[in-house]
Design goal:
The structure is a homodimer.
Chain A: H1 5-13, E1 23-25, E2 32-35, E3 40-50, H2 61-79, E4 82-92, H3 97-113, E5 117-125, E6 129-139, E7 154-158, H4 163-169, H5 178-185, H6 191-196, E8 203-206, H7 211-222, E9 225-229, H8 237-246, H9 250-254, E10 261-265, H10 270-276, E11 284-291, E12 296-299, E13 305-306
Parallel strand pairs in A: 4-5, 9-12
Antiparallel strand pairs in A: 1-2, 3-6, 4-6, 7-10, 7-11, 8-10, 9-11, 12-13
Helix pairs in contact in A: 2-3, 4-5
Chain lengths: ~325, ~325
């Protein structure tokens, strides 16, 4: 069977996900045409997933469709944005309709859940490569950024850290819980949490490469440093056990793939933030403090300072 | 040398091209933040270029940077849009700073020329893959679309057809003129022309896959057919010679890569359109007419009807 690029996009992806009133023209022309709300800024992010780098060969395409969109929506969450539209540039080695249908199912499930409409795309032949751009809105001037952290801010994270790394370590093994595996395969973009923290957080980032690396980006952009209270890090029992048995903190600190939010909140807004977080199913945990001294210090409750494991995942490190 | 993904993007691409007042936050955070004009709609398009499919291995990276953006801007031109922002998702087999610098040079040259700012991107490791999304604006309700062609519309194209195909046929040969080669390597997005045709054209598309294929998209979307007057097709002397010697019309009809605009204009607006086109350096040529009968007929001046060559390039055709 032969399907042109055009038919491919039309057939599998035409306006997947939510159907939005602000989409004047979706998939199928040279461009999509979109109505823009007043009083808002547009926030956009593009991310690529590559086979054998970001996911294993023969990864279940439905999971891949879900996760590809999830990691992009996580970037919108880190800005406190409300998601709206997505585009998909998909490079595939061959036309496999079952694969495409499954990928689209995973993508659309998440898109529908978060009110995102697929408005355009491109489908080309080549080694598997998935680029997704997401678009959302924030009230003008309210977006959470990396560069807003202030001395004395308290550092918080949503959810728990290290489960995705645990699942990744144990790929093919028998000792990964379904819960940890789900955290790796189906991360939950913290969109409601990010939106709820607008107005109280000074800075935010999503934890894709690991807490140390991503908090490091906040520190670098804001010209500050930080101390992390290691015994406060929110971890599952399985991750706690791993740390204890191996004396290895890399899962919560640098394994990455958690897609939780790390935010910094000024002391005078802590009460307000914690009040708002009462509604967070995933929780919001205080894990450290922003300081003047550059770098990130990892402090145990007993006063011991850990040598941090090597920094987060870097795609081109040698 | 080792460069993280983050540093890579920052170093080579940070806010390349024009510097725009509507970019609140460009490259470097989880998302870019953008101010939106009032009274406009946003138009967006994403396109991918893959090595060995869209360009040859070892293509000069400066040319590639230029062309990658040019083919995307051509999509904005086809909507009559004014370009604003671009994002770049770049997958590279390795970090080659010379390659990146040259790619960025080509990209930035064109971006600066058309007032486009690079606002975000992602750099990942893998087989070479270039996805670019462009963003532009149109006055609300004025975008040129594929689905607006009406019975009796006159079909026009900008510029000349077939030179890019000629250069592509002769890759490595000695008989390609510099002019034809330039049309292949450095297509000129017809942005001013597209904007000038807003209000007079009923439908528009850019010719990336070949006139027959792309006019076919207009016909399909609009529920019409067309006749092309073959002897009116605007071609260079080299392309005319090729047609005559080989009795082969594939260069102007289906070779693609021309990135000219094909528009349909109602008879009562022809005078106005041709008046506006006086300023088109590339020219605007009448080549056919929209009709009720489905399909596209290729008519010679002597009344003979050509059997059209196989349709335009389709990435997954077998």
């Amino acid at each position: 069977m032969s399907l042109s690029e055009f038919e491919l996009i039309q057939h599998f992806f035409a306006n997947s996900g939510a159907q939005r009133a602000d989409v004047t023209l979706g998939v199928g022309d040279d461009c999509a045409i979109l109505a823009m709300p007043t009083g808002k800024e547009l926030v956009v992010s593009i991310d690529t997933l590559v086979e054998s780098v970001h996911f294993f060969k023969d990864t279940d395409p439905e999971r891949l469709g879900y996760k590809s969109l999830a990691v992009n929506l996580s970037d919108l969450a880190a800005m406190g944005a409300r998601p709206a539209w997505a585009t998909l540039a998909l490079t595939l080695p061959s036309v496999d309709e079952d694969w495409l249908a499954a990928f689209c199912r995973g993508f659309s499930q998440l898109a529908t859940a978060y009110g995102v409409q697929l408005i355009g795309g491109d489908t080309t032949k080549g080694p598997l490569n998935i680029s997704i751009q997401v678009h959302g809105f924030v009230d003008i001037g309210t977006a959470l950024r990396r560069d807003g952290a202030q001395l004395g801010d308290v550092i918080y994270v949503t959810g728990r850290l290290g489960d995705a790394g645990l699942a990744l370590q144990n790929v093919g093994g028998m000792d990964t819980s379904a819960a940890a595996q789900s955290r790796l395969d189906r991360p939950i973009p913290r969109l409601a949490e990010g939106q709820a923290l607008v107005g109280v957080a000074n800075a935010a980032i999503d934890i894709s490469d690991g807490l140390l690396s991503d908090l490091g980006h906040i520190c670098q952009a804001s010209g500050v440093g930080a101390t992390l209270y290691m015994d406060n890090l929110p971890c599952s029992q399985a991750v706690h056990d791993h740390i204890k048995v191996n004396d290895d903190w890399s899962l919560p600190l640098s394994a990455g793939d958690d897609y939780e939010l790390c935010v910094t909140i000024p002391p005078e807004k802590r009460a307000e933030a914690e009040q708002r977080a009462v509604n967070f199913e995933c929780g919001l945990t205080q894990i450290g403090r922003i300081e003047a001294a550059p770098g990130i210090r990892c402090l145990r409750a007993n006063g011991q300072q850990l040598q941090p494991p090597s920094s987060g995942y870097e795609h081109f490190s040698s």
